[in-house]
Amino acid sequence: MGLMQEPAKGAVSEAWVIVLVKDLDQAKQRLGNVLDADARRALALRNAERAIRAAAVAEHRLVVGGSVEVKELAERLGVEAVIERRQEGQNTAAKRGIAHALKSKAQAVLILSSDLPLVTPKSVRDMLQTASRVEPPAVVAAPAIGRGGTNALYLSPPDAISLRFGADSLKAFRREAETKGVNFGVHKSEALALDLDEPEDLARARAITRARRTG
Length: 215
Fold this sequence. Notes:
- By secondary structure, the protein is of the alpha/beta class.
- The protein has helices at 11-14, 37-54, 68-76, 90-103, 121-132, 169-180, 190-193, 199-214, and strands at residues 16-21, 60-65, 80-83, 109-113, 138-143, 150-156, 183-186.
- It has a single domain, classed as Spore Coat Polysaccharide Biosynthesis Protein SpsA, Chain A.
- The chain is globular and about 45 Å long.
């Protein structure tokens, strides 16, 4: 973890949480062997709503998505949305969200995947609290299980480093932060670590959910 400080008053609520939502019809393609198209779409919609609701711990929420339905979901939940005319990947979507937040003078953002079946308001709040203790310029990443990916990324200021979501992004974020002299931290969270890319991820999510219900 980078240099630590006492969290500024209101730091958690003042950060923008930007939820990235893919086109629901194109989501979860790699789950095609275990879920049909309707089931994959329904799963993506549930996860998107879960992530947007979890982001409510922040005063400012923004959804970036690729369909009118995503916009309608955001509006129903009382959240502003930026709808992409053409989806160009997670990094471009995140850049669009950050640009929108910067127009409103955002000092920090948390980029949050909508593909997290275990995410909760508490898990988002915990990450924001951890990140607020890292002296700016700061980057804090929540790693994904396997593949070296990143499921949530805190940036203060919002343009502290460039965006490199994808395989091995955690190493890439750390490397650039170190190169630029930006304080870098890792926030480990079970609720933020599991995304649904492969059938085994779905099985793991279901097992954890069952264990919680019976525990």
